[in-house]
Every structure is written in C-alpha cells, then in structure tokens.
Amino acid sequence: MNKREAFLKVLRKEESENGQRYFPPDIDLTPFKIEEFEAMNTGKTIEEYFGLFHRSVETRMEKTYAGDGRQLFAEKDMPAEFEVDPFGTGMSKGSEACMHMVHFHSPLTGSCPMEDIENHRLPDIADGEKKRLTDRVNELHDQNIAVRAWLEQTIWERSWLIRGMEDLMMDMMLEDPKAERLFDRITEHSSRTAAFLAGVGVDLIALGDDIGMQSTPMMDPKLWMRYLQPRLSRVIAAAKSVNPDVIISYHSCGHATPFIDGLIDAGVEVLNPLQPESMNVPEIYRKYHDRLAFWGSIGTQTTMPFGSAEDVKNAVLDMARLSEDHRGFLISPTHIIEPEVSWNNLHAYINIMKELNGLNE
C-alpha cells in the first residue's frame, strides 16, 4: 500500500488489505523552526524529513478592492506599518517577542450600516489557479502522495476578521440582520472555493474556525447552531456535490467538545486537533470513533515543548493503543511547532512514527 492509500484508509477508518495498521505523521513548523531546519542542511524538504504521507495546497486569492487597501482603515487609529490581505483585513506585527504572530485589524468595526456589509469587497480566486492546482495535485498523486487543501477561516473567523469579534458577537446576540448577511456572504464565498478545490481533485479539504477557548466554548453552542452550523453544512455540501469522495476535516483549537454533534451533522468527517489541554481525548474518541476520524492529540502546550523525548514517545503510543480496535486516528502534534520545542522531541516523534509504520530508515 502506498502513502496516499494508507492516508485515506486511516481517515476513512478502513482496514488495509493486509491487516497492517498505518500511522501517517503530520508536522507544521513556525518560521523560526524552519530556519533551524534549513540550517541543518538535510538535503530534504520538511515533508520528506518527517516522512509525511500528504502535502498541503491552498487557493491563492486576488483582491478586488482598489489600491493597497489602506483606505479601508482611513478613519481608524492604525499603526504606522500594516498590510491588508485580499479579504480586507489589516495585519500588523507585534513585538519581537511575538515572533510570527500578528495583530488583526477589522475594517467594519463600530457603527456599520448594512450597506457597508453589502459593499465590502471579497476576493476572487486568482487567475490560473485551476491549472496550477490541478497540475500540482496530479503531480503528487503520481508520486502516491495525498493532497490536503486548506480552506481555513471558513465562516466564523473570516466574518469576525472583517466585522470585529466583539461587534459581530453583539450583532448575533441582538439578532441584527447584519450578522446574517455577513455570514451569508462569507458562506457563499467559501462554498465556491470548496467546490473549486473538490474539482481540482484534492483528497481532503481542511475547513476550520476556532470556536473553542482554553477551557470553554467561545460562544453559546445555541448561537453556533443558529448562525454557523447550517452555513457550514452548505459549504460541505458544495464540495461534496462536486466530489462525494473528498474528505472533510474541521479544525478548532480549544474546548470544542460541545460542538461535536453539530459538526458531525453538518458533514464533518475528521476532527482536528483534539487538544489534550482542553478536551478529554480518550473520552471523546470512545464516544465518537464510530462517526468521526481524529487528527492531532499530542499537546503543543505541554508534551512537545516541556516533556521529554520519552514523554513524546509515550504520548504517541497511548493514542495508538486507544485507537487500536477502531482505527481512524492520525496522531500528530495539535498545532504548529513553536520555537521552544526541542529537536530531540521532534526526532522522538519522527522515530516513534517510523517504528509504528515498520520503517527502519
């Protein structure tokens, strides 16, 4: 069985023909860790070095607003240096201590008439993207590598980045029609993108909106069920209408437990990242393994930065034992690898994954 086949069988909770169990790894590095990796001169890409069974792609977007977008913030108190993304969200760098993190600036905060919601310019898929992505997917499939497509900030995050989280929360609580209209516009945009990605042949579309905080949900689940769950269903249906076999994963950091049933009903097939600091991973796996596959579970707030190499190995083995009878678990760090994570711990993760996959290289 090749890597792509093994990756798909794990996330579809299928048995392999020879009965062997496979453990696709996953890793994502911050810029600081990428610089460290490049200094190692391994002669390999990060994906090759960590033995990934998949590669990731993302749709490039072209802005439709005029100029550099700074005019969207003309009446706001902004830092001297900031950039505007294709959706019209501003971004400025924090202090050196913030490393790769940025501060977001929302263009439609405060008093905002419905006209501003209607007229806010959303980007188009860039020219040539269909050919570029189709060629890339075909290239990777020819190498027996699976392809994951990112469609993060699917509805909730993209909407609050434009309106501002506090203002959008207030719109929802007050049943202001502006919330409905902004969510609808973003849902329509994400639905088109999801259908586009399904059409270029990717194996998995990774949706995501952070709806959990460290120990609580970010919002009342009833609000989420009213405003966001039906719209998420529409995005997933748009992808499945083009390719029923494309796998749908969903990412939310934090305590996402109260939303799991609604995510399943919306069509989510894989849940990521299952933060052990925020969710009871064994309990959730046992409750939902028949309806969901899982991706993550190795804590990047605890085990990866502050545990030993032996702790990393044991955390992976615990998850392998947990999912032994029912499968459907891609065991990986829960989030991007921060600067404080040692290479000893990263190598411990690589080595135990190779061992589980029966590799001696």
**Span from first to last CA?**
18 Å
H/E order of the elements? HHHEEEEEHEHEHHHEHHEHEHEHHEH
Give the strand tally.
Answer: 12
Here the CATH topology equals TIM Barrel
Tally of alpha and pi helices = 15
Q: Could you tell me the mean pLDDT?
A: 96
Quaternary organisation: single chain
CATH architecture: Alpha-Beta Barrel
**Class of secondary structure makeup:** alpha/beta
Helical residue percent? 40-55%
CATH class: Alpha Beta
Strand order of the largest sheet: 1-7-8-9-10-11-12
> What Rg do the Cα atoms give?
21 Å
The gross shape turns out to be globular
Q: Report strand %.
A: 5-15%
Low-confidence stretches: none
- Let me know the largest β-sheet: 7 strands, parallel
Structural topology:
Blueprint: H1 3-11, H2 31-40, H3 46-49, E1 54-58, E2 61-62, E3 83-84, E4 90-93, E5 102-105, H4 114-119, E6 124-125, H5 129-142, E7 146-152, H6 156-163, H7 165-173, H8 177-199, E8 204-208, H9 221-227, H10 229-242, E9 247-251, H11 260-266, E10 270-272, H12 281-288, E11 293-298, H13 303-306, H14 309-322, E12 329-333, H15 343-356
Parallel strand pairs: 1-7, 7-8, 8-9, 9-10, 10-11, 11-12
Antiparallel strand pairs: 2-6, 3-4, 4-5
